[in-house]
Amino acid sequence: MTFSRSFVRFNWITLVLIYLVVVAGSFVRITGSGMGCPDWPKCFGQWVPPTCSCELPGNYKDVYSEKRAKKIEKFANFLTSIGMEETAEKLRTDPQLRIEEDFNARKTWTEYVNRLFGFLAGNAMLLAFIWMIWRYRRSKLVFIAALNLVLMAIQAWFGSIVVASNLVPWTITVHMFLALVIIGIQLYLIRRISPSQSSLLKHPKWMLYLIWACFLITVYQMFLGTQVREAIDELTKNGFGRDTWTDQLGMPFYIHRSFSWLVLILLVIIAWKNEQMKRYKMIRYVFVFLIIELVSGVLLAYADMPGLVQTSHLIFASIIFGILTMLIFRGRSAT
Hints:
Elements: H1 5-30, H2 60-81, H3 85-93, H4 105-136, H5 141-164, H6 169-193, E1 201-203, H7 205-237, H8 245-249, H9 251-276, H10 281-302, H11 308-330, E2 331-333
Parallel strand pairs: 1-2
Helix pairs in contact: 1-4, 1-6, 1-11, 2-3, 4-5, 5-6, 6-7, 6-11, 7-9, 7-11, 9-10, 10-11
């Protein structure tokens, strides 16, 4: 089945919007704006949030603390139903989850912009799905598009849980993992509908194995990176300075750092052989982005750099994930 250019372009735009949600989410994280809006999907009960605490009732903290308590109880019941009783009990008994932050206009609007990007990405996926139903309903890709739309809805719902649980670390990790799955499925759709992505990239089997290794390590690296970032947040809250972070972070940090160099070595081999053979641009791109990613990682680990470096570290990791995903989707053995 042939898909129109406009439909293909729209799906590329949707992918960009999904990536912008990841960027905005990272910016929310580094600015500590995750609790800028205590409720969801509205912000302080409004579709357009306030700019001053004078626009809120005097007891707004009590109001939203009570609402959060109810949402936490519902989520705890859900966790109990799937066998996570210990985690559910921790949520129920953590007094910190009932404490509301003071209103901060900058944090509120930072979180609000993040939600706007999520709204745009979600609606773009919905429009793409409706478009596919309307013009290409005989395609088997309809089910893939429907799956990704459902995952986006789950991601939005889980975003409300992240807010309700006051950014409990493991919820942030799950939130990130779902984002990667959504990106992966969107890339698969583009791979199937776009003529520019239909050609196969033929590699020797050993190169395909190395690409798979880089992909799996990158996913694990992103998971570890989230864990390290969460640990650093806790250390900062407890008054530990940057000079003590390395000692306090322990094995996850060393694995994260070491695996980065492992990926570099593997990609050096892949890039070197690529220049000798087919010279695929995608492999060149992933190698360049990895260098930038490593530089940002070094700056984060050893220099007191601004928070924007953290955002670049995540976005380049996400781009590397995307390119490696496309290499896997399009890769075939040349033998």
